[in-house]
User: Fold this.
Amino acid sequence: MCIMRQGHKEELMEFSEHIKTANVEDVVLHQPLHPPSRGTLCITGHHLLFSDREENSTRQILLLLRNIDAIEKSVENLLGYSSLFSKADYSKRISGSSGTITVKCKDLRVLQLDIPGMEQCLNIAHSIETLSCLNDVSEMYPFFYRPSDLSSQDQWGLSSSEKYYSEHKELHKRWRLSSVNRDYSVCPSYPPAVIVPKDIDDDTLKKVAKFRQSGRFPVLCYYHRKNGMVIMRGGQPLTGANRKRCREDELLLQAVIDSSDKGYIIDTRSSQQVQQARMTGGGFESKSSYSCWKRLHRQMEKGKALQESLIKLVEACGDESQNMDRWLSKLENSKWLSHVQTALSTAGLLAECVERDGHSVLVHGSEGTDCTLLVSTLAQLIMDPCCRTLEGFLALLEREWVQAGHPFQLRCAHSAYSHVRLQQESPVFLLLLDCVWQLWRQFPLALGFSEALLLRLATEAYFSNYGTFLCNNDQERCALGVKEKTYCLFHSLLKPTEKEHYTNPLYEPTDLAIWPSVHPQSLQLWRGFFLRWTPQTRHLEEAQEEIRNMVIEWGKVALS
Amino acid sequence: VILRRTTCSSQLFLSVENVRFLDRSSGQRKASVGTLYLSATHTIFVENNPESRKETWVLHSLVSSVDRPPPTPSGSQLILRCKDFHVFSLFIQQERECTEIHTALNRLTRPESYSELYCLSFNPNVNIEDRAQSWSFIDLMSDYKRMGVPNNLWVHTAANSEYKVCDSYPSELFVPKSAPPSIIVGSSRFRSRGRFPVLSYFHQDTLAAVCRCSQPLSGFSGRCHEDEMMLQALMKSNPGSDYIYVVDTRPKRWMQWCKARRHWTVEQGRSLLWSDQSRFSIWRSDGRLNAMANKAAGKGYENEDHYSNIKLQFIGIENIHVMRSSQQKIIDVGEMRSPSMTDFLWGLENSGWLKHIKAILDAGVFIARAVADEGVSVLVHCSDGWDRTAQACSVASILLDPHYRTIQGFMVLIEKDWVSFGHKFSHRYAHLDGDPREVSPVLDQFLECVWQLSEQFPCAFEFNQRFLISIHTYVYSCQYGTFLGNSEKERRDMRLRDRSHSVWPQLWKDRSKYTNPLYQNQLSQNQSQGVLRPNTSPYCFKMWKGLYHHMDKSVPPRQSPADFLSAVREESHQLEEELTNHQEVPPGGPAHHYPCSRQGIQHTHPIHVQHTHTPPLKRQTYVSTCNSGTHPPVSTWNSGTHPPGDLMSICGSYFRT
Assistant:
């Protein structure tokens, strides 16, 4: 109960209208990997709290309501079964019936609550349904969370365009930091500062923004120190059916490469798709207008198709038929691993253009807020050793996902269990983490962070105590005062007490590129995430623990 | 370490220059040019490149097929497929030479008698006493002693001395105390090939046992009083339970067929078999049609009406023919060139391979549960009791007893459940040119079950997958006498102990490269705590890339945490020693030692690659000169040492995908 008393009086007041029953005694909780336990269930504005009443144990389970993806309730009239109970039980239950709520979480855990009393059960279910999908961001838990070991004066975030620019002095000759978007008027989904070619002034940028979807004009996101080549990203050009041109856009791209050189454009859509996009006002960089740029198309699924893929995969993982053929065909049918393969091979292509071919690349799809970010992030991990440390990786995520305007709020509103009609949900960020896990598995010594970090991030994006993944872009976060009123996840992960858990004990930095194999045999289902709540995962975790201990022991000997 | 070759193997039959050679399974993309030699025992390719002079030796007995695709204008091609899934391509300019090599290889890779086999000429440079000692490295009697046998429940029987009751069983056997020789002999007459019920594993904690035998010849209303007594004796030898499980590892459709014809006479059975040809498809398992009628007339399973206190359990493991074709399909999946994820998963599903692995593991889990959790003894059989029975019993033993998860324990387990109990190694692994329908990857499947378990329990096994793969290779390559022949009796009659060497001391000597650094010793705990309870849900099974992909065609050798940790452990061990000796750390500080880059490992592997930096050799002296200073291919790399250019050439380009 102590957790609830952490000064949440205001919270309790605000949500009390949704809570008709706050406490139920004698509830039985069934959760994976544990025997069922009996105790008290409480519901607050943001949490479901279960406290075990077994003797000698004061176990508590605190579940953020935002974690709940779907519930199923079944209410049974127990009168018919009265003979099954002893006299005492019978008299207690005769007053009503009981019900069961199955809680399906966004971290893929499935819990079951047996609640005595039909009315209480329905009340609790109603509260969960309402409170787990509140739409008002300012009512969400990060605005109420007050951890004792973090101070609100702490700096928010790890990285920004400004910081990246100041850290890469080599950039300064040909690139500048522009604050054309300081009030988010040019591109609402970009941060206030962006890195652009030095020769392009802010007025030109404003014109380019009008020619690119959602105002996302091409900006620099990665500078390859070895050969000075860069990765740019943006939205699609709005050429439309009339093949409209934009002189300023052509100038900007020309400024990225020297007049003699050429560049690549990686479009995350197929060539048929980009032709279709012209009919709805979108388009692509035509050969005639952008003669120095070569377009490469790689069709990547996003949006609804990706969400459905996740739903099918999770459904397959929950199949208990023990039938091998059925499992393999369901796994294939979900297409999730195909998406992993495509993402990694497109990222490999991007890295190959930059590192091996020595050319700059512009990446975009249609909006440039999903697959574009996925590919550019993975390519940076492949090429840049600085991104492979714990801090470097978190900074990369902050620049390439949080500040680059991946709409977390829309994409992560629901996960694989939800029954609500899908809107803009899509597990692009989860796909990124899966791809990073594949890299981590193929190069267990090259990445400085652990699988535990990827697992933590995979859940934090969907529900969190921290403000990092709130809202859809910087502008929205600014309007709500997220940086002032909530805490930063990344800082919390880097606290000395937490950090060790998230570092890779085997890490050995290498300056070389890590080229992933995209052969189907080399890609595996991410068991740690998708089968996290099955018994055998424990043994794999023990092995990781053993590795950590061995390296620590070794360190001691080496030091002494 | 210098390897001495016998004069026999130094005879050079053929040599062809300007041959292009491609090691497909190690991901080589560009063929290297050099000279090809054929000796009595090896195909040898020596690169022309004076800098590396790389040599590749391929043992003839490891080659499973030599294919010759139609010749092209640029020359003729030969494809060598090895039993350990290596594939080599040879491009020869002159068609005549190609024909010559093809003919020679066809003869050399298909020995017709045991005397042609390499193990009888292979001499790993040990003297006679050491050789004799090598055969006593594994002592099965001490393993029985370790599990507490003999005791007041199980006793040693001399019934099968000189193999007179059952020629495919070992001479040393353990049976229930209450089973006198008369019952043993009676029971053996009623069981296929005389393989009567005997002890395979005794679980000290629960006093329950795993026993094995072959099927009863009860197919057409037969019964045998002694056999019924025998099963009664098995039940009585476990004081904790009043029944036993009889596990028939064959698919249920077999049982249904038998059941329907239970009361038939032998004559009726025979006539049915001859008249009803369509039924043959059900048990193609039983060999050629001719022999089938006689065999099938007697086959069956225990009738619960005649045997009291038994519970029959059917676990559907498919027969050797289904398994053979399934493995071919999964090899084909491994050889697909740039398949899509869909192609791959369909191929995997279509092969059925993982389904079969799961069935075997499920059988083992059932037995282990019965013995450890229920305390009930189990009698396992299939048809003859040397394939599926060996798989089920050995998987159960490895789940039940942590000792079998050690390097030495695992050797004992294979020696006991497979070698001594008459698994037909020479037939199943085609040591001689024989009936292809007898060949089947039975032991491959057991090794794969163990690998799947080690993936689920990374800290439970003392050995790594290299150990399993090495055993797999030695089983097929016949460099050592251990796996030769089809039974203990055959090996004795061939006097293999005097004429060949045992593989186990060699594996034990190399144990440092087979050790799993994550292993946590559970031997100190008592047995029941050390029981593995694996999850056998379909999602727990993966394709064993390590076996089917050797060097992993398109994938560069990856960083291996296990190798890293082994190195780390070795290093900290050294440091500790240095500290205790008060010595200074050598200049340059501690360096990482990678176990595989160790020099001086004796070249005992049937395929080995050797890089010599010596000037080109004269051909006549070639065989004798190359024997010095060999070391195995370096197969691991550390994140700091790989040149990106090389990697890209292995991985290929993402432009193409």
In short: The two ends of chain B are 46 Å apart (CA to CA). The mean pLDDT of chain B is 78. The longest strand of chain B covers residues 12-23. Chain B has two domains: 2-110, 132-548.
